[in-house]
Design brief:
alpha/beta; four-stranded mixed beta sheet; two-stranded antiparallel ribbon; 17 helices
């Protein structure tokens, strides 16, 4: 067969940097309401339990609703809609929105091909809601989000998101707000310096630990640093934009300039590789993408144990989740090899 390629292939993308305490609050809410990850985060599980125990009844009520319906993702999408200064600013601008506009903003983006369904679902079309759920049925939490928008409506969700954000800032976020702001600003300045010297692809790989190559329909990658969800990178997308909420580097977290303090990502990588089960899992995934069920059978060990190993490999940036399966992140080792050489002073 002879093929004449007349398609357009994007050879790069624009990187946009953004940092905000509101994103930090939303990601804190996301972390709080995903207890399965509490044993694989920088902050210990006891930290999250204590926050819950000390939270007011009002905040716990909103967190329970969030955990049941994955509304933290709605909150993040809402924060991308405009530049907000505070939780009060969010409330002031969200409440006057038309219901269908609000619904559209908080419904998940499933790609351009599903945008008509998304618009119809935002307007209350039950058949479109069902079709949208069917289109993302294998996703871990998108169906729950869509059902919540359909079931509760814009007014209920507006009040929930506004109260959730306001109460989180008042009871939890404000305690570390000044320090976190300084950390985010330090990290943002570092990444801006990287952009002046390196390609967009290199900056995304170094910051997020993900090799993201240019693809059709995506002209921009947004990098948003966070403190609260370390060491995880959270991936999301909107129309024309790929988003990575990435963990700030150890040096920016501590303000540490000690040249003998190894980068946290480097330590994390070698800890992830220092286990025979994880190396076996990594080899299996490098051969082809595999589901949790496949890996459990091939490794001949319990599902909970395999999930724990995969969480460590994911947090080190070695594997990623794609369509319900675990996929190899091929550029991760190259990135860390360069980082190791830099730490050892071997870079030219």
């Amino acid at each position: 067969m002879h093929v004449f390629d007349a398609s357009f292939k994007r050879n790069t993308y624009q990187v946009e940097l953004n940092a905000s305490l509101l994103f930090e609050y939303a990601l804190g809410i996301a972390a709080m309401t995903y207890p399965k990850l509490h044993d694989a985060m920088d902050k210990p599980a006891s930290y999250w339990r204590q926050l819950r125990e000390e939270a007011s009844a009002d905040l716990n009520r909103e967190l329970d609703f969030c955990q049941k319906h994955q509304t933290w993702k709605m909150l993040l999408q809402l924060l991308h809609a405009d530049s907000f200064a505070s939780p009060g600013d969010v409330a002031d601008r969200v409440f006057p929105m038309r219901d269908e506009d609000f619904n559209y903003m908080v419904l998940p983006y499933l790609g351009r091909g599903e945008e008509a369904l998304r618009m119809q679902a935002a307007q209350g079309d039950k058949e479109a809601v069902d079709a949208l759920i069917e289109a993302c049925r294998v996703h871990a939490f998108f169906p729950d989000m869509i059902r919540a928008v359909s079931r509760y409506g814009a007014s209920r969700l507006k009040h929930h998101l506004a109260d959730l954000l306001r109460l989180w800032e008042k009871e939890i976020g404000e305690k570390d707000a000044a320090e976190n702001k300084r950390i985010l600003e330090r990290d943002l300045a570092e990444k801006k310096a990287w952009l002046e010297k390196g390609s967009p692809e290199e900056v995304v790989l170094r910051a997020a630990g993900v090799e993201y190559k240019p693809e059709a329909g995506v002209s921009k990658v947004m990098l948003i640093p966070h403190v609260i969800y370390r060491p995880w990178t959270i991936e999301a997308n909107m129309e024309d934009t790929q988003i990575y909420y990435y963990p700030v580097s150890d040096s920016n977290l501590n303000g540490d300039t000690d040249p003998y303090e190894p980068p946290g990502r480097l330590v994390q990588l070698y800890k992830a590789l220092g286990d025979d089960k994880r190396l076996r899992a990594l080899k299996l995934i490098s051969e082809q993408s595999r589901s949790l069920k496949e890996l459990t059978e091939l490794l001949n060990t319990g599902k909970t144990n395999v999930h724990h190993h995969l969480a460590i490999l994911r947090s080190a940036g070695l594997v990623r989740v794609q369509g319900g399966s675990y996929a190899w992140n091929p550029g991760s080792l190259d990135h860390h090899a360069k980082e190791l050489r830099g730490f050892l002073g071997l870079e030219e």
